[in-house]
Structure formats: C-alpha cells, structure tokens
Specification:
This protein is an alpha/beta fold and 623 residues long. Helices cover 29% and strands 13% of the residues. It is built from 15 helices and 16 strands.
Amino acid sequence: MNAPFLSRAVRPHRLFGLFALAGLGGLALDAEPVDARSNEPTPKLSSDGTPHTDADVRADEEDCPEEDECSFKKPNFLIVMDYSSSMIADFGGSSRWDAAEAAVANIMTMEDGYFDDNMHVAVMRFAHDQATSPTACPVDGTTVDVDWYDRDGDPEYYECNGEAVVGFTDDVTTPEAEQCGTWTRHAMEQAQAFIAESRTDHPEDTEVDAERFYGVLLMTDGQWTGPSGLDPAAPGENPSEIAQSLYQDDQVPTYVVAFSSDVADLEFAHEIAAAGGTDEAVLADDPAELEGALEKVVEDIKDSVIEPECVGGLPRLMILLDGSSSMLNSEAGNTPAAEGTSGWDIARQALAADNDSLFDTEVTVGEHTAVLEDIVHVGAATFGGLNSEERLLVQYGPCMRDNLAWALDPNTSCDEPGCTDPWAGSPITWTYKDSDVDKDPPFKNQTQSHMPLCDHNPGDGTACTGSGTEVHLGLGLVEQNVADYQANPDPYPLESDAPFANILITDGNYNSTDADVQTVLERMHTDGVATYVIGLGNGISEANVNKMARWGSGDQLDGYMADTAEELKAALAQIVSDLALDPCCEINDCSENPEPDLPEDTGDGDDDDDDDDDDDDDDDDDD
C-alpha cells in the first residue's frame, strides 16, 4: 500500500505581534455608501452590472481556497482611495481616477488571482464633509464600497472577493469637477475604526501568536485638507498622526501610493508613509507606473507576511540517489553504458529533464492542481562505498530542477586530463564542481556535482568500478542533514510541523547489513521522516526494495520497481501525487522564475533591485 504525506496541522499566523485593542471605542463609521448618480446607497455590483449578494461574493471563484485550508490567516487589506475632484486630472492619457480603478482591478487578477485567493480586500473612498462645505460631493466623508464581511449579519469573512472589487472598479463613476476635497485625516480615522470593528467582530484575529495581519493602502494625489476640502494643510488635520497611531498602537502599517513622480510636491505622502511604518510613499507618474506601484505594495505583503508563513510549512523532499559504480554500467554490468542508457542517466532524466520530470508532476492543491516544483522544497544527496562518498548535493529549496540537472550531468564533472568522454568507461577521474566556485553565474543555492567512481579495470573502455552500495551511509547522511536543517534552516524559514520525506533510488542490493539499514530507516520514521524506495533496473531484488520501504514507512508501504526513465518518472509521480498541501501556498512559479530570490534578497522593505529574477534563466546552458 502506498500512502501520501500526512496532512500538516494549520499553523497560526505569527507576524507583526498585533496588540490587543485599546482606546478605540466610540468611533463610528460614516453613513451608507452613496452612488454618485443618485442619493441611494451604492450597490456592490458585479462586472455584469447585477448587484452582488453575499453568496455571489463567496462563490465568484470555484477554486477559492477557504481560510481553514490555509496555514496562515489571510491578511485583511483595506484600500483607501482619494475621490477628490483633482483625481479627474490627466494621467498619462487617462484620468487619475481611471488609472486608480485599473490598478486596483489589476492586483486582484495578477498572478492568476493569487492575491484574490490569499487576502481579504476592502475598498473605501474618501472626499470631504458635506456639512462644512458649500459644494456637494457624492461621497460625504468616506464610503465603504467593498467590505471584508457583512457587518450587520454573518461575520464570516468573504473569501476571494476580488470579483466584488473588480465590479466596483467597473461601475463606480468618476469624481465630479470642483466638488470633492481631500479630508485625508478623517479617512484614516475611519480606516482605524473600520479595522477596530473588524477585530472586535473577530476576536480570533488578535490571538497571541496567531494574529491576523491588517494593512492599509492609501491612494492619493494631493495635499490633505480639513473637513471642508477647501483648506490645504489645515491645522490639526494631519493624517500622519493617525497613520502613526495605526502603526504604533494597532500594528497596522499604512502604504502610500501617490499620483506623481515629483518628490518635492509629495512630501506629505512620504510623511504619511513614514509615520505608517512603510518608510516612504511609492510614486507613480502614469498608469503603468501606478500599476507597478500597487504591485510592489502587494508583493511586499506577499514577501513579508504570506511567504514566510507558507515557506516554513512546505514539504521538504530529499532525493537520495545511489552513487555506486554500477549506475554507470550496462544492465549486464560488464561494459560501460552508452550515453543516455545508464542508471545514472535514467535517474537524471526522470529527476530533472526539462518539462518532463519529477518537478513537472502535478499534485492536488485544494480544488486545483499545481506542479511539484512550485510548492515543495527539494534537496538531493548521493552515496557510494565506504570511502566517505556520501554527499549532500543541494539543500532543500524551491525550483531545484536546474541544480539537479547540473549536479548530475556527467559533463559537469568531466574535465581533462582525467576525463575526455564521460561514457567511455574506465578509467575516468572525475572533477567534482562547486557551483559557488565553478559556475558562472553561480546558483543561489550552493550545489555540488557528483559522479560514481569509475576506477581502472584491466583494459580501457571496461565497466566502471570503485563505488559500492553502502545504503546505510547515505541514509545516515540524510538523517543527520534533517537534524542539522531543523536546527538551522537558513535561509528559508521552517515550521516545526513541516513534513519531511525521502525518496531512495537504488540499482543494486546493498553492501550494508540489514541491521544497519533497518535501524536508520526505522529511526527516521519514528522521528516523522518517511522514506520511499524505488528499485532501478534488474540489479536489485523486489524483495529488498519492499523490505527497505517497509522499514522506512512503519510497515505501511511497498517499494516501486522501474526499468526505464518513463517507469521511474511514473513511480516518482505516484509517490508525490497525493501530497497534502496548502492551497494558499503556491508561492513560486518556477516556469517563469527558475531561481527565486533567497529570503534575505527581497521582501525586507529596502531598495534592493529585485529585477534580476531572470538572470539565471540560462542555467541549462551549463548542462
């Protein structure tokens, strides 16, 4: 019987250490949203013009992951949009308001709806107080156009409410000329009250060590005013004070996106951002820059809030590959295998071939499928005989296809004079490579190349010898690596309940004793690390494969047998196809970015240039 990884318990969200609510009573939200074309409450419209119902909001996306399926509490993200009359000004061929609508809709649909799936999004517009102004603005103070939940009914959060957000951007009218001001402080006060009410209605959001992240995005194009909208920089109306309170008292950062690239004219925007804990405003001077600015904000939340929680709980899968000399020989064992036919070549093809390998295996994630390399951290190790041949090739990490292809490629380790043809047979002296030293550009995750020994046999061009099959040494290396990695997983975060598993691929009966192999396999299983076993070729008995598989699984699993690359890929696919995975943690797209930045390279709020994602796209050129 073959079994999947065990499901992982849902982990609490641990970022930002949100404090308990205090001193926020008595703040009330403004009146119902008002439509610019009438005096009726603004309906929440879908893109086809029909009013949204609660059921519509919940069912807009069939693949929407429910929060209880996720390993983190979805962030609550409030977009506060300036609805002042200056928003009708030209902005790179459209109005500022039209560009703002398009940018908000874009973040709900970018990356195949990633942020729609993984955040709760609300939208608030603001202008000025009609009671203190001679002009009548369609928005009186503030209006909430899209909410996180029904504040008068069921407090359950709307999941994947991006359709409601896009519907709002499709149907809301453009601000009217010379009628609406910019009472930004009041908008920030209302945002603070809005968040306080949400926390009151959801006490689980403030559980110690399980807090929900809340964030505010302020989109504005001009200097703030007082209630009338007619008095720029009015005394006592500085919104930075509220942004500071949100950040320091409530642990809610305020991101600011401003509609200009003129730094001198937008010091007020930088002041709000600095007070709100996000250092400085993001400036945009045309629609494309505005979309990029909003993308930068939500990517920052992904990098600093969602991704650390996700990465810590992703499965860690170690490939342990037999590095005995028989892996280089023909099936009969008395001649070197031709290129592409050795056990080593077959394993490399099944593990790391472009578009058709372990990394391309589809696995079930919630209600949809994903490819393994996007949502599992994979490492690789090898072993041979008694001469300390066991080696860690690459530590657990995302998108490891190129690393394995390089590490296992015979050409990588074939340098003159010791090697001129890696398939010529003995004698061959390999030159093992370190990607940090021998590869340009190096991998972001250090990788070691390896080949089984091919020592001299009488007569040139004969079968390779030199490396035995001391399986217990490879297993011992993997076991120790798990312990070392759990103690120091740097650079990737690691949750204590993240699942670990091994896949052992071997082509021959081991030279180890049964007791040595059984002891380490059973010990790892007791520690929560299952080992799957695949026998490659006819040099190993199925009985031995099954024996190791049972030791490595608490007597629950049989092994797999494979003679060809296709059969090996099928066995690998069977092993990983039923992994219990977090539907909210499909955080990488290795097909687009084959080498994601290491955690310390990005997402820290600094000005690192993260536009080098494609620098290593040519890794396969080194194969």
